[in-house]
User: Which sequence fits this backbone?
């Protein structure tokens, strides 16, 4: 569900004609829809109703400050995985007590920063991490609130690169070792055990893997209870999928209805960490057609956005729908939509049947709000794109397009003499 729709033959973001937006801002440009974002938040709020819960948006999906602030104002929290994300989250207005800190490789400096900011919970992923956190907290005269991230060994049936909850993945503490790990955590003087956590993967399009994972977590909570360890929350991670093509992921209500019967008996507050399902369909990437290159073997539409701007197709073979901003009705062609980067892997779409474009036309790469700009790079010395928010009939640049000066910022010529 989103607010990028055609009016006649022209694609609009809410009430903004995307041709006018491109006229003002240029391409490539990410465009986010405020109303779509709000709608996704509301759908999640409604699904949980008045049951105790906290949505902690996974900042990694899109860390744009304007987007973060919009979410912070909705009263939701943040799930972060680095000091940098903590900085962004705080700058956008998320209070420490609504921030959970995930990730396998927290440094001591990051732990200190997070303790200073009073994060609500550290999702700890290994015993050595627990020991260091205990020491760092002790040195600061603090007690670190902790949930252990357990690896429930559940197959989320998604792309292998975004599976995280299988035995062979680097994430979390093995399920069979979890009890011992909790005993150890409980024995540490500067650690307060407050929760249990799991995250099994991303772009999950059925409820079953979630139900299985939550069931395993609930069993663990019960066992911990027998040992006198009383927790405050159960964090079920993120991972709810969206529609890129023809997937039919569960609606928030359906998802909540499926997991609640397993969750509710624990009596714990529920935390979840959605990224993609909140922002994925709230963003698109606009790009200009540079050349239509027809060869006897294949057709290429060369555009000004590349894998440096949206890497998902190159990295995962991910499908993103590509739509013309202005429909011309000049027939279809099958083509690869490729960027200017010097890599054969630089494509946005492969063998795609699209409306035949003309040089200078604008194309919209859909569902690019999650893991789009955040995974962009400066490879081939390409300045990263602008980001724009649309709200009703107005729009605002919320991140300027990078300049050539930005590309060399912080660099120096070598000054060491013999
Ligand atoms: N919580 C944790 C601990 C995570 O590692 C992730 C995502 C999330 C929450 C949010 O998951 P979501 O609701 O967005 O599925 N770059 C990949 C996705 C990587 C996801 C990494 N972890 C992609 O473009 O598909």
Assistant:
């Amino acid at each position: 569900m989103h607010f990028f729709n055609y009016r006649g033959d022209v694609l609009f973001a809410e009430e903004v004609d995307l041709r006018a937006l491109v006229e003002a801002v240029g391409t490539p440009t990410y465009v986010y829809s405020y109303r779509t974002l709000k709608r996704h938040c509301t759908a999640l709020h409604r699904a949980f109703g008045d049951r105790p819960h906290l949505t902690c948006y996974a900042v990694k999906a899109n860390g744009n400050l304007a987007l973060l602030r919009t979410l912070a104002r909705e009263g939701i929290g943040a799930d972060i995985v680095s000091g940098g994300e903590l900085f962004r989250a705080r700058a956008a207005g998320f209070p420490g007590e609504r921030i959970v800190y995930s990730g396998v490789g927290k440094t001591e400096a990051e732990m200190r920063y997070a303790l200073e900011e009073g994060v609500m919970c550290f999702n700890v992923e290994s015993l050595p991490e627990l020991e260091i956190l205990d020491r760092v907290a002790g040195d600061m005269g603090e007690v670190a609130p902790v949930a252990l991230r357990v690896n429930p060994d559940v197959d989320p049936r998604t792309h292998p690169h975004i599976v995280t909850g299988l035995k062979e993945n680097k994430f979390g503490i093995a399920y069979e070792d979890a009890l011992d790990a909790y005993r150890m955590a409980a024995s540490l003087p500067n650690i307060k055990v407050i929760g249990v956590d799991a995250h099994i993967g991303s772009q999950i399009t059925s409820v079953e893997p979630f139900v299985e994972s939550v069931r395993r977590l609930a069993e663990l909570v019960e066992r911990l209870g027998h040992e006198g360890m009383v927790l405050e929350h159960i964090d079920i991670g993120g991972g709810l999928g969206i529609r890129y093509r023809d997937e039919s992921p569960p609606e928030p209500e359906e998802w909540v209805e499926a997991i609640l019967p397993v969750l509710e008996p624990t009596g714990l507050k529920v935390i979840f960490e959605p990224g993609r399902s909140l922002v994925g369909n709230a963003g698109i990437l606009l790009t200009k057609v540079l050349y239509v290159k027809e060869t006897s073997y294949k057709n290429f539409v060369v555009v000004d956005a590349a894998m440096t701007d949206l890497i998902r197709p190159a990295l995962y073979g991910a499908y993103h729908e590509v739509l013309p901003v202005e429909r011309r009705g000049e027939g279809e062609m099958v083509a690869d939509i490729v960027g200017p980067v010097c890599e054969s892997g630089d494509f946005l779409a492969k063998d795609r049947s699209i409306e035949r474009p003309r040089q200078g036309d604008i194309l919209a790469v859909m569902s690019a709000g999650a893991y789009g700009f955040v995974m962009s790079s400066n490879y081939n010395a390409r300045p990263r794109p602008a980001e724009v928010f649309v709200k009703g009939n107005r729009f605002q640049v919320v991140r300027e397009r990078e300049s050539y000066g930005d590309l060399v910022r912080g660099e120096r010529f070598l000054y060491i003499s013999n």
About this structure: The CA atoms of residues 381 and 408 lie 9 Å apart. Residues 58, 61, 79, 102, 162, 164, 199, 202-203, 237-240, 273-277, 312, 370-371 surround LLP (CB under 6 Å).
